[in-house]
C-alpha cells in the first residue's frame, strides 16, 4: 500500500502529500466536511444564494451575447447530455459549465464576495449541475440528492473566497487581474470534488490541476464580451480538474504554498504587499467562520464598485427631489472612489459603448441613476446606450481616486454635484458601504428579486417549481429534476 494510504473495507483512501501544510489541511477539510457540521442558518442562506444564482442564469440565458455564445459553440461542439439552461439543447459537460456560467454573469446581477472579489454562483452551480447531468447520462452513480448538492455548493462557497483572501483579495483587481477568474477554478474544483466524494489526496490533485488553469485579464471589462465568459472558463477548469482527478490523473501537490511556481507566490509577484501573500487565510477559522456571510447579493445591474455612487445619487434624489430633477442645471459631478473601485470603474467611457462597458463605468452608471432613477437590465438595452441627454451628463462627470478611502474604508464613495450659475450650494453625499452590504439583502429580498426578475422570463408554474425545489433542497431526492426545470427555452428580459 502506498505511503499516505489507508484502507477501509478494502477500499484505498489516500491523504494529501503534506497533511499539515495549508493545501493538505484544506483538502482534508473538503473531504471530511458533512452537512451536519454546517450551521442551520448557513445552510438556509446557501439555499437563497443558490436561488439568486438561478435568477441570474435565467435572466441571462437569452441575452444577445449569450445567444451568440450558444450558437457559436453549437456550431463546433457535438450535442450532449448536459443541459444548456434556458435552451432546448444539450452539450458536453465542459461546454455546459462554460455556457451556463456565462449566463449567470450575463448581466452583472450576480453575487460577489466583497473582500475577495469573485462571483461564486457562476463558478459553482454550472459545474455541479453539469457534473450531475454527466454522471446521470453515463449511469456512473446513483441519483444525487439535494443534501449532497447543498453540501457541495457550500464547500465551493467556502474555498473560493479563502483562496482570494490569500492573494490579498481586491488588490488583485487593482493589479489588473480578473480576480474571480483567478480564484475561481479552486472554488469549482472543490465543489465538484465534494459532489464526487473524492478522498483528500484526490482533492489535492483536483485543486492542483485547477490552479494551473487560472487566469483572467480585467481589460475584458471595457468592450469584450469575454468578460461575461471568464468565470465560465474557471467553472469549466474546475470541473475538468475534478473529473480528471477522479480518473486518476495526478495534479500539482501542495499547489498553494510551493515556492517555485506555486499558485500564491506566482500570482502575487509584484503585488507590493508585505507579506507578498497570506497563506494562512486558506485555513484560518476553517469550519467555524463561514465565508458565505461575506457573499453579497446585487441590488443593481452593474459592477459592485459603482453601487455606492448609485446610492449617493439616489439619496440626493430623495432629499432634494426638485433640484435633482432638473439635470440640465448640473455643471459638474465629482465621484471619489477607493483604489479598487477607481481602477475598475473610474475610467472615462466614450461612444460607442456596449452594455458590458456601460455596466463597468461609474460615470455611466451615475448618469443612468440621474436620468432613470434606477439601474436595472432595462437601462442597458441596445437603444438605451446612445441617449444624447445621458451622454451629455456623462461628459460632466469626473471620477477621482481618493487615497484616504483606501486607508479608512475602501468601499466609501463620495459624490459632489455643482450647479450652473453658482446660485445653489453644492450637493454632497457620502456613503460608507452601499446597499447590499449594509444592510445586506435579506432572504426575503432575494426571494423578491427572484420573482420580480424572472416574471417575464419563464412561465409561472415553472418558476414556482424551481423556487420550491431550491428552498426545500434538503428533501429533494434527485437533482436531475432541477436540471430538467432549467432546460427549455426562456425569454430575453431586454427584448
TrEMBL record:
Entry's Gene Ontology molecular function annotations: lyase activity
Domain MmgE/PrpD C-terminal, residue spans: 300-472
Classification via SUPFAM superfamilies: 2-methylcitrate dehydratase PrpD (SSF103378)
Record-linked Gene3D superfamilies: 2-methylcitrate dehydratase PrpD (1.10.4100.10)
Domain MmgE/PrpD N-terminal: 25-273
Composition bias type Polar residues, residue spans: 1-11
InterPro entries the record matches: MmgE/PrpD_sf, MmgE/PrpD_sf_1, MmgE_PrpD, MmgE_PrpD_C, MmgE_PrpD_N
Segments of this protein annotated with the region Disordered: 1-23
PANTHER family reported for this sequence: 2-METHYLCITRATE DEHYDRATASE, 2-METHYLCITRATE DEHYDRATASE-RELATED
Family of the protein in this entry: Belongs to the PrpD family.
Stated name of the protein: Immune-responsive protein
Organism from which the protein derives: Ramalina farinacea
Amino acid at each position: 500500500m502506498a505511503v499516505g494510504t489507508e484502507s477501509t473495507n478494502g477500499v484505498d483512501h489516500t491523504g494529501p502529500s503534506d497533511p499539515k501544510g495549508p493545501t493538505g489541511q484544506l483538502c482534508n477539510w473538503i473531504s471530511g466536511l458533512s452537512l451536519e457540521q454546517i450551521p442551520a442558518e448557513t445552510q438556509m442562506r446557501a439555499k437563497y444564494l443558490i436561488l439568486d444564482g438561478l435568477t441570474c442564469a435565467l435572466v441571462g440565458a437569452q441575452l444577445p451575447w449569450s445567444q451568440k455564445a450558444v450558437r457559436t459553440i453549437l456550431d463546433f461542439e457535438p450535442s450532449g447530455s448536459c443541459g444548456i439552461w434556458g435552451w432546448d439543447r444539450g452539450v458536453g459537460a465542459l461546454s455546459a459549465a462554460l455556457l451556463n456560467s456565462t449566463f449567470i454573469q450575463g448581466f452583472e446581477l450576480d453575487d460577489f464576495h466583497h473582500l475577495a472579489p469573485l462571483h461564486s454562483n457562476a463558478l459553482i452551480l454550472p459545474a455541479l449541475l453539469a457534473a450531475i447531468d454527466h454522471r446521470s447520462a453515463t449511469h456512473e452513480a446513483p441519483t444525487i440528492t439535494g443534501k449532497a448538492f447543498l453540501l457541495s455548493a457550500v464547500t465551493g462557497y467556502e474555498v473560493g473566497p479563502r483562496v482570494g483572501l490569500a492573494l490579498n483579495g481586491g488588490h488583485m483587481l487593482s493589479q489588473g487581474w480578473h480576480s474571480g477568474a483567478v480564484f475561481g477554478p479552486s472554488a469549482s474544483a472543490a465543489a465538484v470534488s465534494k459532489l464526487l466524494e473524492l478522498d483528500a489526496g484526490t482533492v489535492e490533485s483536483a485543486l492542483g490541476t485547477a490552479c494551473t488553469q487560472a487566469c483572467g485579464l480585467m481589460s475584458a471589462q471595457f468592450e469584450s464580451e469575454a468578460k461575461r465568459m471568464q468565470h465560465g472558463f474557471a467553472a469549466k477548469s474546475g470541473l475538468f480538474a475534478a473529473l480528471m482527478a477522479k480518473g486518476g490523473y495526478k495534479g500539482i501537490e501542495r499547489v498553494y504554498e510551493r515556492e517555485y511556481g506555486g499558485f500564491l507566490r506566482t500570482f502575487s509577484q509584484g503585488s507590493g504587499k508585505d507579506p507578498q501573500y497570506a497563506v494562512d487565510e486558506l485555513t484560518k477559522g476553517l469550519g467555524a467562520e463561514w465565508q458565505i456571510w461575506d457573499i453579497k447579493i446585487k441590488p443593481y445591474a452593474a459592477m459592485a464598485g459603482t453601487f455606492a455612487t448609485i446610492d449617493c445619487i439616489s439619496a440626493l434624489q430623495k432629499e432634494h427631489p426638485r433640484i435633482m430633477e432638473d439635470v440640465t442645471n448640473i455643471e459638474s459631478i465629482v465621484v471619489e472612489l477607493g483604489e479598487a473601485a477607481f481602477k475598475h470603474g473610474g475610467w472615462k467611457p466614450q461612444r460607442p459603448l456596449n452594455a458590458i462597458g456601460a455596466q463597468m463605468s461609474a460615470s455611466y452608471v451615475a448618469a443612468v441613476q440621474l436620468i432613470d432613477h434606477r439601474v436595472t437590465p432595462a437601462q442597458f438595452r441596445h437603444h438605451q446606450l446612445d441617449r444624447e441627454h445621458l451622454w451629455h451628463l456623462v461628459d460632466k462627470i469626473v471620477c477621482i481616486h481618493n487615497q484616504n478611502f483606501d486607508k479608512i474604508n475602501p468601499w466609501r464613495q463620495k459624490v459632489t454635484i455643482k450647479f450652473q450659475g453658482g446660485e445653489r450650494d453644492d450637493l454632497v453625499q457620502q456613503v460608507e458601504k452601499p446597499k447590499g452590504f449594509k444592510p445586506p439583502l435579506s432572504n426575503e429580498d432575494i426571494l423578491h428579486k427572484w420573482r420580480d426578475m424572472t416574471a417575464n422570463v419563464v412561465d409561472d408554474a415553472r418558476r414556482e417549481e424551481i423556487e420550491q425545489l431550491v428552498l426545500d433542497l434538503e428533501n429533494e431526492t434527485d437533482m436531475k429534476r432541477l436540471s430538467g426545470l432549467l432546460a427549455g427555452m426562456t425569454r430575453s428580459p431586454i427584448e
